Every structure is written in structure tokens, then in C-alpha cells.
Amino acid sequence: MDEVQRRLAHIHIRSSECKGCRYCVEICPKRVYEMTTVYNELGYRVPRPSHEEECIVCRRCETACPELAIYVERVEVGSITGTYPL
Amino acid sequence: MRGEILTGTYLAQGDWACAEGAIAAGCRFFAAYPITPATEIMERMAVRLPQVGGDFVQFEDEIASMAALVGASYAGAKAMTATSGPGLSLMAENIGLALMTEAPCVVVDIMRGGPSTGQPTMAAQGDLMQARWLTHGDYEMIALVPASVQEMFDLTVEAFNLAERYRLPVLLLADALIGQMYEKLVIPEADQVGVESRKKPTVGPGDYLPFQVDDSLVPAMACFGEGYRFYVTGLTHDESGYPDMSPQGQGRLVTRLCAKVRDRAGEIMRLDTYHLEDAEVVVVAYGMVARSAQQAVDLARERGLRAGLLRLVTVWPFPTQFLDGLSRRLKALLVPEMNCGQLVHEVRGAARGCSVHSLPKPGPIPHSAQEIMEAMEGIKI
Amino acid sequence: MSGGEVKFPLDDLLRRDRFPHLWCQGCGLGIILSTFCRAVLEADIDLDDLVVASGIGCAGRLPGYLNCDTFHATHGRAIPLASGAKIANPDLKVVVISGDGDLFAIGGNHFIHAARRNLEMLVICSNNFNYGMTGGQLGPTTPFQALTRTTPFGNWEEPLNLVQLAAAAGATYVARWTVTYAQRLTNSIKKGLQREGFAFIEVVSPCPAIYGEMNEQGSAWQMWEELEAVSRIRDGIPPAEASFDLHERIICGDFIDRERMGYTLRLRQNRDVARQEGLAGYG
Questions:
Q1: Which residues in chain B have Cβ-Cβ distances shorter than 8 Å to C271?
Q2: Which of B192, B213, B233 is the last residue of a domain?
């Protein structure tokens, strides 16, 4: 009945520019990222934000990324559908 | 009466005349390091430039001075430095930067005895080849060689105009005698001094490529702060200004850098001729030596020898074709110079029609008219 | 989630057509680039007034990625080149970004004198302890006994303390950060951009592919962790106490922030005096 959306961010990664340094994976306090087995054109394994819903928009990944390849887009917080029980 | 151009007639020093020529040409940035015998240029600029709304800075060395010239030029200023042989040696790398980034500026070299510290207060003409080849790689240089205090003024103005027109560092080479001596100088009215400035872009930032050229082979120059947001590098680059490490890229760039001067050599070169029409022996000289040579030609003619003088006013680009043509109707060319023989190699390479004779004299005393005349007579023709 | 066509916040400050950049996996220079861009945005600097110059080396490539007037000069000579530009046009906002070798070995003398003059520019030094671009040779900040291509048996020289040198030379703003202090570094750069005077920021920057590899520092992330572990912030302490030992203790912070008239303003004063004095004869 009630649906609370908690997702705070859409994480954009320019994977084609990633060099697989893992800073984002290691630095994230909410363990949003994990390394994949996908190799990009540069020959590096790239991460993905597999737990994007955990993101708290601290932007440590964005500021730490040496490739400037991450953008943490803050999205509208919360929407509740249905009735609110009194 | 104080003004930007000190119109009037003076008994002036060569170095002083050079400084005033620079101001007349619009120079408003001067960066240098003290070095005998060019220091007077610097000291005059230290007084005059701030008075005319420019800036003078004594930098920590000649390397910094030349780097500052490139920066100031790219910020839109007409910029100059003055030095001697040891300083020119230090400036070589950044003169290369100015060549590569096509930064208009003027470098004055008042030549003294070398190599190394040499004879700081004594004249020589030992920097001739250095003026052409001082830095590594392929490039053309423009070098003017005054032979009087008047020419120290006039040719400094010319140097700025050539620098702006062809976008490169232009050298003014004068031996210490020309730099230090006092002679009559006439500084004309401001409207009599022809001044040129660099070509500016005719397109907006979105369409501008910093090193794209038309038939002139000289790119239009946007400067810092004009909104063009360009990239300049000493690396080999293409029209966009970005580095280009391709094989074709190197050829294209250096070919153009050379061609922009070579193709216009006819307009750039200045020669002064004396009694060439019927000459059989011609002296090729510049600077102080040319003054003795002119007297020597007169002395020789009195003694029945058909002598003439080709005085170089620009030494680079070298008048190869002119000299070759001239040599075909001569018996001999004589090359007196205040060094161990530098100009003579260039003359020999150019002149295929007659013999070429070297008269080196390492300096500091220039050849006398008598010495040159005797050398002419001594040539078996 | 792929980047797709989404515009990133720093895109307008970058020459996006030049990406991906040429630096190695985990290189601190990318972080210096992004913090610089963020600071420019926050300080509201007009990109048309900004000139960024650099010398030779990996750090020297940084301006190539910035969307403003940029000049890649000869080795060690970015500071005098930038000085000439600033003096000729004081309305320019002038920044030099270069490496430890370019700024303090071959360029050391120029650094000292520009600081002494208090020439109005911001100098950011990416300090990675070696000459990375040419393969990893000794630099003026290479730690004692470290291995480099030209110290194959260990470095026998003591490294220079850049903060102390800058302070001694007269710089009016001196700070040191590592790339792990993104926010403090951004603030520092912003401060450097907003003041007029010689500002110097040393940024300790990992070089995992070359320095790290030669000295067995582990992965890029391990180097990051070590930097975090040894760094401490001590704002305002005397520069003499801003010690630096790469593996023991790196003191970071804002050390000097003082007022002194900038050089281009002094040159204006010079003009006023020159005009009053009248023509000083000739000859």
C-alpha cells in the first residue's frame, strides 16, 4: 500500500574513460560500488554502482575519481503513495 | 618635452637610440638582466617605460627574461629584451619557444668578445652564426645589423614591425662599438614612424584555430583574456594548437615556420650597396667593419681598383640569390669580419661565380680601411 | 549506469574532446584537475580572464584539459612566462600548475623570485616525488633512500621542504594538502584564486604507476590509504614545523595567509613616481 522511495541519487559513470583504480569502490562509506568483470576499450575493469539506492550523496567517489568520470546526480527525495495510517 | 616619441636631433649613444626606437615602435614591456655592453639599453628603459605607461622588470636571469617576453607577447604587449653573447646563449631555449609558439618580440644582442665570459667591454662580431642557429631544430631567423647610432633607432623599429608581421622573435645584432658609441641621431615626428601590429582573428572563439593560416602563412593571433581560450605549447602542434606527434605533423609545422620567412625573404632583406655597378672586387660586411670597408672602397678606387661594398643591413635571412647573381659579374668577394670567420662560409655557399676571400680579425679592434684595401689589392685577379 | 549524454557539473570548464586524459591509473593529477575546476566554479572566476600555464612533466599536461587560455611552456619556465603575462595585463587571473621537478629543480630560482616579488599568481605544485613523465628519475622531493631510475641504489639526497622554501621566499599564502583532502584542497585553491599576491599550494599526489611501483607502495588505493594515515592538519603553525616525511608524518594545512602589496601594484606605483620625476635627461 505504501511505497516510500528512498533513492537519493542517480550515479552516472563514464565507463569508457575509467581506468579501474578502484578509488570509488574503496572510498564509498555505503559500499555502493563493486568491480565488474567488464573491460572497457582502454583495457580496464570498470566498477558499477550496484547498490545505488544506498547512496547518501556524500560525493566522495565523485571528488576522488581521477578520471572525473563520476557524477552523482541528486534526485528528488522520497515519494509516498497510498494513504498514511493515522 | 616629454613624450612617447622623443622627436628631435641628438648626440646619442647607440644603446640609448635602441631604447628610444623600441618606445617609438610601441614597446611597453621590457624584461632583461644586466650585461655589459647592453646594460645602457636596460637602464634607459627602466627610466622611460614606466613614464610612457609600460613596465620594465629586471628578472633574476636571462632565461626568465626571455620566458617573460613570450608571456607578455601573448598577453598582447610589444616586448623586448637586450643582452650580449652569454645572455643570448641562456635565452636560446626560450627563443625556441618564441619561434615555436610564434610569439612576436625583439631580442637585442650587443656583441662582445667570446666565447664564454670573453671580453665584456670589447667589440666582436662572433655571434653571427649563433644568431641563426642558437636553438635546436628547424626554423628561420630574422636578424638586423645596424652600422650607426641612427640605425640603432631605425632598425629597432623595423625589428618590431617584422616581429609583428611574421610572428617570431627578431634579433638586432650590433657589435659593442655601435652600441657604445655616440653619434648624431634624428628621431622623427611620431607620424613619420611606421608601426605595424599583429594580425588579429576575424572569427569568433568558436571558429578560431590558433595556428590556422592563409596565404601569408602567418596565423592571426588571439591573446590571453580575449575569450578565445586557446592552447599553446612548445610541443609540435597542429592548427588547433594541440600536440601532434604524427610524422606528417612535424613536417607540416616546421615547413610552414621556415616558409613564412623564406618565402618573404625578398621583402624582409635590406641591403646597402656602394659602387656595385662596375665593381670587380666587392667587400661583403656589416656593422662597424662595413664603415671601414666603405672607406677602403674609396681608397681602392683612388688607386685604380674597381671596388664596391655590399653592406648587409639584415644578415638573416641571408641574401643568397642576390649574392650569387652579383658574384657572376665579379672577380672576387672579400669578407672582413670581427671573428675567426663566420659570414664567409655563408658567402662562399651562395657565391658560385667568383672566388671568395676571408679576412677574419677576432676583435676587439675592427679592421682599418687600410687593412681592407690592402687585402683587396692582394687578391690575385 | 552509463554516462550517456548527461552533462557533468564540471564539463563546461573542461576540454571534453581531450578526454580520457593521458594520466595513469590512480594518478593524483586527475584529482588536482577536478578540485581546481570545482574551486574555479565556487570562486566564480570568469573563464575568459583565466590563464593557466605549466611546464614540462605529467603535471604540465593539466592545462591542456582546461577550457580557458592555457600555455604549455618550457621546463621550469612557466612562472616567468606567467609573470610576463600578468605584468603585461594585470586583469588576467594567472595560475601556474606544474610538478615538483619543474617548479623546484630546474625552475627553483624562478619560484623564489616570483614569491619574493609577491607576483600575483597562484602556483599549485603536484608533488609526486619523481620525474614520472620520463620514466621515474630522481626529483628534488624524492625521499631519502627511495629508489628511482637515477638512484638505483637508493637516494642519497635529502628532499626539499617546499612549504618552508615558499615561506622563506616571501609567498603570502602557503598551504599543503594531499589529494585525499578534497574539500580542504578545493577551499585552499579557491582562497588562492580569490586573493592577489603570490599563493602557493603543495599538493601531495600519488604516482602509483611509477614511483609507487619502483618503491613497492602497492596499489593506487594502498598509496591513498597510506597518505591518509600519515597526514595531519595543523593550520597556522610556523612553516618550520610543517614537516614532511612521506611514510611517517605529513603536516598539512594553511600555514601562511598574509597581506603584502602585489608586484603589479608596485609597478603602478613605479609609473606614478616615474611620471612625477620627469624626463631624466638622456644618455
A1: 50-51, 53, 55
A2: B192
